[in-house]
Design a protein that fits this description.
Blueprint (H helix, E strand, L loop, with lengths): L2 E10 L4 E9 L4 E5 L6 H12 L10 H11 L6 H22 L3 H4 L7 E7 L8 H13 L4 E4 L11 H18 L4 E5 L6 H11 L6 E3 L7 H9 L5 E3 L5 H11 L4 E2 L9 H13 L3 E2 L7 H13 L6 E4 L1 E2 L3 H4 E3 L3 E2 L2 E3 L8 E3 L1 H5 L24 E2 L9
Parallel strand pairs: 4-5, 4-11, 5-6, 6-7, 7-8, 8-9, 9-10
Antiparallel strand pairs: 1-2, 2-3, 4-15, 12-17, 13-16, 14-15
Helix pairs in contact: 1-3, 2-3, 5-6, 9-10
Amino acid sequence: MKLKALKTFICDAYRTNWVFVKIETEDGLYGWGEATLEYREFTIVEALKELERGMVDRDLRNIEAWWQDAYRDAYWRGGPVLMSALSAIEMALWDIKGKSLGVPVYQLLGGKVRDSVPCYANGWFANATEPEHFAAKAVEAVALGYRALKWDPFGSSFRDISRADFSKAFRVISAVSEAVGDSAGLMIEGHGRFEVPAARRIATELENYDILWFEEPLIPGNLENYSRLRSQTSTPISMGERLFTRWEFREVFEKGCADFIQPDVSHAGGIWELRKIASLAEIWQTAFCPHNPSGPVANAATLQLAACVPNFLYLETMATDVPWRSQVATELCQLRQGEMTIPDAPGLGIEIDEAAMARYPYQVHDLRHYTGALTAIRPPDASATFGAEGAGK
């Protein structure tokens, strides 16, 4: 099975741009992958084109052999650009292999251990600014069936947090907690904002709220600090979206950095690499909850992992998205009573409409995490990504 063409696509998604790759084979098959790396879209496209050279005249059924050579031959290994490009191509190759054999990808990874997976909502808070806004939107998300809600209440804080911002953040947390009661768990996102003293102060206060986890509380780059923070609070800690490959996650487990790990299938090495990381997590009795805020192809790939990974706990799901997502992607999954069904279609169970993507070309989007505009992630006409009971077209 040889390469015929590698095609790249950039599609506006309001808060960022989706980056997709389509691999076509000489046998007439094709597969989709996703390399959405916020604010580095054109860089990723060039990385994908560079990796294409190493695919020429290879048997694309041998996914692991290609992955090992692509990773080795980069020489400067790791990092978000190489790993995101590599992940997307690997994802597309699994899609092709599943289609060629007429089975979903999870069947190639050992078969499924579940038919659906519990979901938590991200993006439910779009354009909320005050505690009462967050509370109202939280009630709406729970009505869609979500069992847990995640959000970042910390405004423009970075490194430290002022008394005023601390107070407002916990007014928001209190309002959401009171609004949803016991109907949904709460996850507080840190986006890698804080140094240890501020993170410890927040984590200590969060002990009063019985949250599911405090996500990425610390500025990336010092895993020892995660171990220190975790030893100083009973608040569960999650992290991992900015780590790549099993080699980086080995240190997370050995140092006892987290209660939940969150590698991203479109950044950390692809489907098979995440399966390896999940196996390491199982040895360390750590729940596997992949980072999954990107586009429809990454969601489809993560669902294939949810099917076959025993210690997969929650699927991150964007509760709202741009209204043209359903034009661009045909998603076969469904959200039912807080769980997303896992498609049984061959490959990843996703189709992308190239003509629809062309109607939404690249737009410049800048990072909002430390500007105070973090919740401005959706247009006014945003809609529920999957609705109360259905998804896609």
